[in-house]
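Hey all, sorry for the wall of text incoming. These are the two entities for the joint prediction.
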Amino acid sequence: MQMGIPMQSSSSRSLAGSVLPIALVLLAFELAGSFSANAIPAFARKYSLPCSACHEAWPKLNTFGQTFKDNGYQLMNEHDSPIWQNPSYWPVTFRITPNFHRESTNRVAIDQAGGAEQRVTNQGFDLSGLDILTGGTLYKNISFLLTPSSDNSGTFHFESAWVRFDNLVKSPWLNVKAGKFELDNIISEKRMMSLSNNGGSFKLYHFVPVGDSNTFAQIGDNQLGVEGSGHSLDSRTRYSVAVLSSNDGNVNLPSNSYSTFVTASHAFDTGKLGVDRVGGYLFVGEAPTFSLTSGGTTVVGRGNKSFHREGVFGLFYLKKLDFTLYYQHGWDSAFFGTSAPADGTPLPAGARAPTWNGGFIETHFTVNPQLFFIQRSEWVRMSRQALATSASNLGDIDAYTAGFRWYPFMFSRAGFAFHNEYSLVRQKGASPKGLNLTGSSLLFGFDFAF
Amino acid sequence: MHTKSMNWPLFMSIAMLFALPVVSEGQTTEDQQRQQMGMESHVGKLTGSAKEGQLAYQRYCIGCHGALGDGAGENAQWMEPRPRNFTRGTFRCRSTATGTLPTDEDLYDTIGRGLLNSNMPQWRPLSKQERADLVAYVKHFSTRYASEKPGAPIEIPAEPEVTAERIKAGQASFQKLECWKCHGVEGRGNGPSADSLTDDQNMPIKPFNFHDETSFKCGSSDRDLYKIFMTGLDGSPMPSFADTVKPDQAWNLVFYLRTLQPGRSKAKTIARQLGLKPVNPEAANGLD
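and here's what came out:
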């Protein structure tokens, strides 16, 4: 997502006025169509392992794949340095999904109808965005990932660009990564198993309350910064601490504020059931509430105010059936909550820091590495609105997704999946006129990577 | 894009019908499945089942070792060394005497540890049960397991204290046992026979270079190295010396080989104090 520093005037604080921009932001995100994700046949080619060795069903990692990633894309078998590869080997993967999809939104303001809200339904053949994933090792214990990524119109940006120094002081407990990277989410949005416009993101990873201007605390977006991390040899225990520029991963954005993402988790071997994992995370920081401009160009963000997101998660296995649970509590400064610049102008009367709680349950049934079923139910509930005059449930989200993927073949050169998915998202009071906004997506696609 | 409505339930039903896959599965021969799919493994308190291990094998192993366990997976042609052919029932890393089947623990440890200088990674991240199930599934490929019991683990006496005398004796054994013919005078894997070595599948194989690694194909401890001398690496040119080397001599050899490896060790410190230099038996006109 490309978002700038919010430049709000104190006169534009009404929630009604904020509904439309937020809805547009959400819509823009949904329609971006680039579900940048990591499933990298280049690794499979390098190590002659099938996709299923690292992925329960690609792109979702299994315990072996998580350890491979934690080791800096290394198997630690003394053949990790590129000097062992045939010189013709190129660590490049392309991924795209030609698809048929249907999108329906119940309340869209139509210009030709004088701004009246109407249901709009689109359907047809389409393309996803394109990911070009180049990753691997530059040398033993120096790994990298570069992901030029485009939306479905071919506009490119750098989704990831980082270098990682692995196993510092010969210990897996100390690794340092710098650049633009995905936050260390075990439940990774970059490896999620749903792809549709509505279902292709975790709502909580991008949640912004209605009327709130804090777009900098999106756990689902890749961020710019430096990360220290570590793990046990089998990655049963792992941690990471990242210091990030509060610019939501956008380059060239003048900002003097920072945020921190901390996470830790531990996995338990539960015998015949599988390997379960529990963990927690904290995303805390400051971000600007307004910016100074020169000649109309933003030159620096100012009026830093704080935010935090924290929660717990768990992955639980019952053999072929597994459950992913995620909980988040969120808090934004009242300045963000009311889109007010912290430039000395007083907050609106009665303004409070908005808070919310949310979570999701995602269930998978992995029949075998070639057939995978998924459902996800996600809920976000506001626990305190920035302004008491707002409806208590304004901005609440219910989201549901179900589908399956079938991989006709499973080997070490390329990946191919027939993807089928339906998703439904409902947000309270988020339509242009403040009514409930409901969107649904249906997608049939050929998801392939090579 | 258009907004025309259509009969979605009907469309969905048809689409789902077409989408229902025929799940492809790798298969062993029917005979083997019938006879040996009941194979179990026993590792500590774990009991592994070949039936349970089949899915894990398809997920992790089939690309190299093949659906029939014959080492002819789709990637085998690109690998050096080639993947193990499980149908032969011959395994390198064992605690048992040469020519015998390994114990279930041996196979379990190999899966977790991986095999250095090969494409076999460390599968330690898998659950213990999954690894035990894989052991059972690997065993089910070989008819040897239907008629033979695994060998008994060899006895490994307590490790003695490393001394200068033992290191010098180990160096003498290195020459006398002609280890240098494959591993080289300096232990760099470049002995006069090195280029002509083949494994039991007639594929070229390189001797171990002690200067490259701190661990070995079958472990990293002194006991592991001792075990390699005394059990051999079946299927490779590395023989067992159990009949020709006494335990004390084997420990001496362990201490000498440790002086060749990178990193710090007590043996290496002593060797440095001794000013120990490699001896070229050919230059010395041979030693018995």
